[in-house]
Amino acid sequence: MNRIALSLAGLAIAWSLTQLNLASSAERELLRDPHFQRGFILLEAAPGKRAVQRTLEGPDKAGKPAWDLAQWSSKHPTLPDLPEKLPNGAVRYANPGKVVAIGLPGTEDGDLSLAVNASAEYGTHPREEGDPWVHLLTQQEFDNPPSLAELRECRLRIGMRLKHSRLVTPEGYSPARHAAQMQIFLTISNRKTGSPGYGQYLWFGVPLYDNRERLPSGFKAQDRGDTKMFIYTLAATDVTSESAHDGKWVTIDKDLLPLLREALQVAWSRGFLKDSTDFADYRLGGAFVGWEVPGIFDVDAQVRDFSLKVLE
Question: I want to staple 279 with a disulfide (CB 3.0 to 4.6 A). Which of 125, 148, 157, 275 is the partner?
Fold first, then answer.
């Protein structure tokens, strides 16, 4: 066999080995019930506590809910015992302060709509500095996530559509204190047993909507709320060029891994999570998606095809 033939044979073998390595890499969906079909575990309204109120059934009654539904600081924490069932198979829970609707995947109402009526929550008096604000969001912890050192990719996919966002009471409105925001947050936690920093984490945010900006800016600072942990929120332009303000579907499809690692490096440089600066000690802890509404806005948005897949 001549040298050219040997070289080609070597390239073919190398290509085959590469394909085998790619095939053996395990792509895994971290989200359980990513279409929200099994409903929710409804939490009480006291902020920062996982106090279970009851279960909200979804279209699929075969399994237990994978998601919590948090309603921090809501003055309307009680939802109907049974949902309203819509003709297209969706189920809907509503009270004066909120609406939660779960639609079948692939339908016009799929997968999840979350609405907050802050006019019912605050009345006509805008919240003052230091007052709590209303949240409506879904959350879950991941089962056995890999470390950031083990990952080759962490791909976020989601579709989001703003149905409406209305400032109900403009009197006293201050953009620094009053807003309506929908976003995704992931936690990145030190899960190394025996590490001095075990249990410490940061908030990694992906903005979906902010009434104050068509494409929200990034934010990198300490949480001024209860956790006091570091928040690293992307700019919307890091993941999309589309704006939810237009009322059309915004689709995000992005490998977050380089940004997750960058978030840790920024946190370390600012004195957070300083007990460990090893990517191998950190894992994705959980996911949150939904509304924070510190202003008197009535808002409604729909999400579908939520996915967070990791390639090890």
Answer: 148
